[in-house]
Amino acid sequence: MLEKAAIILDCFSPSGGPFRLSELSVRAGLAKPTVHRLAADLVRLGWLERSGPHYRLGAKLFELGSLVPHRLDLREAALPFLQDLFEATRETVHLGIRDGMDVIYLERIHGHEALALPSRIGGSLPLTCTGVGKALLAFSGAELMEDVLSRPLPSLTPHSVTDPGRLRMALEKIQVSGLAYEEQEAAPGVSCIAAPVFAGGTAVAALSVAVPRERFSPAQLAPAVRTAALGLSRVLRGGA
């Protein structure tokens, strides 16, 4: 259903809108009852707005869009790299951006093995509990890092890092290596490796691969994650 919701949102780019429910159904290639149900959910989330019979992009989406240049263009630019990363690993891959102290997931491609992950397209999780979030936090400036470390750290699982000193050390390591790791901190039994994506001096997004903990092999996954992030960064900087 999350993928279908993303399809509905994509109907508004580049052609805009507003659209009636029947128009959205045709554009999305989905049954009208399905579009009606998903559109109602998107309205509640603030991703869409409804005015009479018409739907248009909601204020929340434009707020997220202000975090990086051309949010929908970012997702479109990232898709080839996400697909390459998936083909290289056959595991679940993510694309996320920062929204305050949370990471917002713009895209997710499911691996061949179903994982019980809390991530969903359009959903948010704390920066400090995810690989994508840590990669973003490490390269979003010292002011944000100190703000996050000065507050009580959220916990999604017993493995979530709640000690500021331990998190600070992890973020410093990420700044050196360019890779972020997450060990069962967002979901039990799942590990993750992530890398930041740059369009300037700070990270505008991050890519990650999530795998079952028993076969987590950073040495094998790191080159693919790093290559995908560097390739997307190059595109966003206009170097491709």
Automatic annotation (TrEMBL):
Key words, A-Z: DNA-binding, Transcription, Transcription regulation
Coiled-coil regions listed: none
One of the Pfam families matching this protein, by short name: HTH_IclR
Family annotation (InterPro entries): GAF-like_dom_sf, HTH_MetabolicPath_Reg, Tscrpt_reg_IclR_C, Tscrpt_reg_IclR_N, WH-like_DNA-bd_sf, WH_DNA-bd_sf
Residues of the HTH iclR-type domain: 1-59
Residue span(s) of domain IclR-ED: 60-240
PROSITE patterns in the record: HTH_ICLR, ICLR_ED
Protein name in the entry: IclR family transcriptional regulator
Organism from which the protein derives: Streptomyces vulcanius
Lineage of origin: Bacteria, Bacillati, Actinomycetota, Actinomycetes, Kitasatosporales
